[in-house]
Amino acid sequence: MIQKLQRRFALSRQGAIDLIKGCLACVLQDLSFMFPVGLLYQFVLDMMAGGVNGSRILFYLAGCAACLVLIFVVTWFQYNATYLATYVESGVRRISLAEQLRKIPLSFFGKKDLADLTNSIMGDCATLETTFSHYVPALFGSLISTTLVAVCLLFFNVKMALAAIWVLPVAFAITLFSARIQEYFNRKAVAANVALEKGVQECIESMQDLKAYNAEHRYLTGLYRKIDESEKRHIVTELGTALFVVSSTLILKFGIATTALTGSVLLIRGEIDIPLFFMFLLVVSRIYSPLEGALQNLAAVISSRTNISRMNEILDHPVQTGSKDLTNKGYDIRFDHVGFSYNTGETILKDVSFTAKQGEVTALVGPSGGGKTTVSRLAARFWDIQRGTITVGGMDISKVDPETLLSFYSIVFQDVTLFNNTIMENIRIGRKDATDAEVLAAARLANCEEFALRLPDGYNSMIGENGCELSGGERQRISIARAFLKDAPIILLDEATASLDVENETLIQSALSRLIKEKTVLVIAHRMRTVSGADKVVVLSEGTVAEQGTPKELLQSGTIYPHMAGLQDISQSWKL
Ligand SMILES: Nc1ncnc2c1ncn2[C@@H]1O[C@H](COP(=O)(O)OP(=O)(O)OP(=O)(O)O)[C@@H](O)[C@H]1O
């Protein structure tokens, strides 16, 4: 049962146990509200039997006090079991989502974008927080307690009980039958919301380009359309829910009328007495009010299914696993008949075989879209391949735990990600336990000193969101400093100096040549100068290795490589 609850509501084991406790607490709370009704019924009986004397007054005073204490204790227990436990579970859920996202292969992120994931971690979690603190325990609580009360009523008088409770299955049936419709509306509303969030995020991120091309107005018109769509979807969802909930609630109100009517008839016929009639009227006035709330809760629980299934999609996604034991001998990277495609299904690599040897620089070259970046990412198991094997020092990387494997790699990406923190801390990302002296040494090797010391607080200067206060070359050098600090045996390098000025380029090139000494280096080379200094060149074209060899060999015997070298010579002589 616990496992079923976990799966059904995207809960941790403790969360499922707490949910059961919360439901029981709500049952107890609803039942505790019936005690004053019983006391009142007894009081009416006493009054009709001739009044209440001294000892009975004490009995009723004690009864009132006992009811108050009982309600207080049970409510306190209910509060702890529902609200507090739910907020703890909410924290656990967000952490497990984040943990799962860390282990999921990058292919998953091709299907989901940032806005969608943020919506799951923040929006869906917040919705479930409210659902599990306010709705689910109260719903189950009132369902169970109402059933218990209904069974008790049957013992008092079957006809009166039926007159009071016939509305319950009808009201619930209406809400349950509407579940699919409500879910449909809610799915559409969530999709419209995610589309809107994506639009807003994209708009903020691309503001610079929109301004540069006077495209703000056009873009904002599209965004306004998304806002309207989201608003419309939410109104329709609310109206749909309200329609069914109001209908069910109206049915419940009929219960009071049928109880009163049946009671009057039975009273006239002499089948029941006044106290029993009175007790039924008291009970129906109590059992319907938590049920009205429960019906609204049921609607909310139904619509939260969309949020739960979005969350389960992340939690159930297979993660990359593997052994933490490393059996490699050396650090040669070997691609053996590798075939690969992204989520789109289009084959990107058909049959790629080459070896990047330890202590050598292997340059990946080829036409744009030929698969150079893909190959370098596959070498670090960012994705799992569909055919062939990739080994490091003879060890199949698909069998190695991804985090353990990454300890072998320093990666210098073209797009450097920096954090809104100091230069010092941004470099320390390379190795979190590095001392300040080690960070500074790495920074010096990567030529960061030149710009860091110009800033007001030196290495302790904040660099803004994603390093927005730094130039492209400075960002790149921080990335290289991280790699120095990590000092991993394999370097994956996306040579990204093409867009930099000569001074920056020289600084970065000199830092890189220090970094790659005696390591296995796989470099995505964009310029022939880098390639000519490489030990080996692998030309990737149309998903296969078209040519490979030393730069000299390829210049003599290749076709694509000499052609690319020729083109670059021409482009270097171009003038504006
Ligand atoms: N995450 C992704 N999802 C789907 N397709 C992708 C993804 N990344 C790259 N591709 C596709 O894979 C092919 C190879 O891309 P890749 O970036 O590896 O080429 P490249 O040789 O590095 O190109 P460039 O020199 O222009 O950077 C391209 O057709 C590209 O559209």
UniProtKB/TrEMBL annotation:
Signal sequence segment: none
Compartments where found: Cell membrane
Pfam families reported for this sequence: ABC_membrane (PF00664), ABC_tran (PF00005)
Name recorded for this polypeptide: ABC transporter ATP-binding protein
Organism: Sellimonas catena
Domain of life: Bacteria
Cellular compartments per GO CC: plasma membrane
Family matches, as PANTHER family: ABC TRANSPORTER, ATP-BINDING TRANSMEMBRANE PROTEIN, ATP-BINDING CASSETTE SUB-FAMILY B
